[in-house]
């Protein structure tokens, strides 16, 4: 072989193969990896047209495979008001929120009746308690619809225009699987909505154009992501991504999960399992509960701090009931469709396990690798259930950092210590993945890796010292294990001959630096199928 397209030499090539090989060089031709080895051996493959990159001691890792995030949610949010508290943003007070919403309104110039939107709202960590109500939003934005998206994505605050359009007026009952918070001492909604009271409104916020979609995919590439997941897509969103891929091409691969309430439509249209130009419709997405930081994760042991509306003896919310879950899981398995289920709390994990077992009892076999997404406030015995049933958990260790102090308050130290038990899952022979759930938390895989290694909150508390993993196991959760989750481990996720040439060049080796330096490692270059899709220079 001679005159290959690209050669990288004189570096640390962390292959993440089964033997944990670290090589010096790698060669790429026609979008595939054709050699991994010493610099001398790989350099010998160069021809007159080969691009030869001297790594000068820097590091190459596999392109990061996104185990769970939301492309179609992140794209529309790019232009709106970012309301995140530290360490993600600088929103500290309600006046900060109001100012940023006005800035977004002035920037986007919505017509009267159109939306003013903010996202990343996290009152638990705001200096003044962060209370926002419909009345406040009405005063500030009398001519527009307003929505402030909670950092979890599972709740938000809206103004009276939105409440009235949804039929949420005085005396209305909470919908099944949802909570409408009221002004104290009244039955009048105060604008704060959770789960099934919120989700139908949330899906009306997701309009975006080609420019926003391109910008969103560029953000993934900037952080070294070469395969990304659209983790709860509507049929229209799936069709949009497919059309875009076929007409303009995708800088990174996108794997869509169809949202459960449109599953039948997706089946009828033959979308499940199809793939074209880097876009794949991977499976079904169930949403079984809410978020632990929003107090809507469904748990068997009650919250220490009660519910989001002041409820006592609160266990969170089941978004859909057991019978509906059973029917959807059986239907998916009958069609050979992989199931991904949002399960933050142990009660929702029990619900998924029960549906899986009911399908087996009905004589319906799973196509394999059912994925409980998040697997956060879970019990140790449920890992044994994962092993027995062939589940492949996707975990969310950045919660221990950004939301760790809130989890300590909501669940106490013992349960908080067991959040996203990545090390225990690995020890049991599972291949757990780790994810950002973007736009819920930042995309950056280096921050994800760091959180899995240190599990330290913003307040300095370590949540589950025994669940901290080694950097190589943390890296596996973001690469080869995530490829395994998507059933693509044969063609990506590690740097081995014959696999797709998805590579990331880093300015330091995460396996060698001090653990606290991992989060500061930067991506120098992202290569997708042998083509550079991001360069820091």
UniProtKB/TrEMBL annotation:
Coiled coil: none annotated. GO terms for molecular function: hydrolase activity, acting on carbon-nitrogen (but not peptide) bonds. InterPro entries: Amidohydro_3, Metal-dep_hydrolase_composite, Metal_Hydrolase, YtcJ-like. Gene3D superfamilies: 3.10.310.70, Metal-dependent hydrolases, Urease, subunit C, domain 1. Residues 51-534 form the Amidohydrolase domain. PANTHER family: IMIDAZOLONEPROPIONASE (PTHR22642), PROTEIN LONG AFTER FAR-RED 3 (PTHR22642:SF2). This is Amidohydrolase 3 domain-containing protein.
